[in-house]
Specification:
Length: about 425
């Protein structure tokens, strides 16, 4: 289990960094290209292990990814795999593939690593079976998933009780193969990437602010451009925010409103945030973001703001430790069933670095002392914890040792090298 020791560079940050391609959009671009029959092209694919899991999975169905070119026989002609499909650590790969396969004639078993094998998948069952899709989980509602082999999928309307972009997307991709229109509704706060892309493909439309109608039919081959990942950029934004006068620019990142909750939190805490829209890709706004560090004050984070910053909540704890006052996070119980129990592992990280944090059932309270010490952080095999600990280390009073540090490659290979090159 590889360790990495990170120390405070002791100089002010001034940097411009092009972050890797957006992970969420990379998964979707690959699946849209794989569903279509023919050659599609994707530029800017994210380099992380999670995206590679989707590429390897598609290879078993006969979809060839050769650089930027994706050649597919089309979902109706996918090859039936002879072995279980390994989704690695990627819940997005598993859930979205489950949606695509559930209403298709192709049967497959989806498995993952030990972390993914413990994550809940039961939320997929009801919406997908309402379409006539086939999906079975373990008795505990976890992987492996047995999916596919369906015929005669029917359009239907469902309402889910969580603002989950993955569940919504699984349903929407499954509904493309139904015999008539389908609709899904949920609470607000979800990322709407899939809905935007379906609209651009002529396969969907909004029925209300949260309800989306899927118009069944074929997806045609296309060219996809994947902008920078705001969830990756968030680590650099946090690094600038916790250093008064520090500054970082991240050009050409997705500015989808459902991805910008962390920027809103930083701004409310007192950081200077500038976001400039420079274009649009697949219906998503894209642009440049600059964050400048200022004196920070504690905030309360709850409700829709949590939903739009869920992946960045461990970073909220780090920034809160360097702020003044007590930062409170609530309505984040979903973090209990991520790659780790992220509420518990975030608290363990802050405590390991000498910070003060109290756990709540659905969040935590961080005491803003304005500093963190050195220490040893156990990542719980969670890339978000490893990367958050690295950001904390860049201002800590002593060296920080990160155990199982290479888990960061799940989303950003070369993350630590990028940090070192910024100074």
């Amino acid at each position: 289990m590889a360790e990495r020791i990170i120390t405070n560079p002791g100089t002010r940050l001034r940097a411009s960094v092009q972050v890797p391609g957006d992970k969420s959009l990379s998964h979707r671009a690959l699946l849209f290209a794989a569903i279509a029959e023919g050659d599609s092209y994707i530029s800017g694919l994210g380099p992380g292990d999670d995206v590679h899991s989707t590429i390897e999975a598609l290879d078993q169905f006969g979809v060839i990814v050769d650089g930027e070119k994706i050649r597919s026989p089309g979902i109706a002609h996918w090859r039936v795999p002879t072995e279980p499909i390994d989704c690695g650590n990627s819940a997005t790969a598993m859930r979205l593939l489950a949606g695509v396969l559930s209403t298709s004639p192709v049967k497959a078993t989806l498995v993952g690593d030990s972390s993914l094998s413990a994550r809940p998948m039961h939320r997929l069952v009801e919406p997908l079976t309402e379409l006539g899709g086939n999906i079975d989980t373990s008795p505990e509602g976890t992987p492996p998933l047995k999916v596919g082999g369906a015929t005669g999928a029917q359009g239907n309307s469902v309402t889910i009780d969580v603002a989950s972009a993955q569940v919504r997307s699984a349903f929407e991709l499954a509904a493309l193969n139904a015999s008539g229109p389908s609709m899904i509704d949920s609470p607000p706060g979800f990322r709407d990437h899939t809905e935007r892309w379906l609209i651009a493909a002529g396969r969907g439309e909004w029925a209300s602010a949260t309800a989306f109608t899927v118009l069944p039919g074929k997806i045609v081959p296309a060219r996809y451009e994947v902008p920078g990942d705001p969830s990756s950029a968030a680590y650099l934004w946090a690094l600038a925010a916790i250093q008064p006068g520090g500054e970082v620019l991240t050009p050409t990142v997705s500015l989808n409103a459902g991805r910008l909750g962390f920027l809103q939190i930083l701004e409310e805490m007192g950081a200077e945030v500038e976001a400039l829209v420079t274009g649009e890709v697949g219906g998503d706004p894209v642009g440049d973001v600059k964050v400048t560090g200022r004196t920070l004050s504690a905030v309360d984070v709850a409700g829709d703001l949590v939903a739009s910053a869920l992946d960045e909540i461990p970073l909220v704890a780090v920034v809160g430790a360097y702020a003044q006052g007590i930062t409170r996070v609530s309505d984040a119980a979903e973090l209990r069933v991520k790659e780790s129990d992220r509420i518990a592992s975030t608290a363990a990280m802050i405590r390991a670095l000498g910070g003060g944090i109290d756990l709540r059932r659905d969040g935590f309270e961080v005491v803003g002392t304005g500093f963190l010490e050195g220490g040893v952080v156990e990542t719980a095999h969670d890339h978000r914890i490893a990367m958050s600990a690295a950001i904390a280390a860049m201002r800590a009073d002593g060296p920080v040792t990160i155990r199982d540090a290479e888990i960061a490659s799940v989303s950003w290979p070369g993350f630590y090298e990028t940090l070192e090159a910024m100074w």
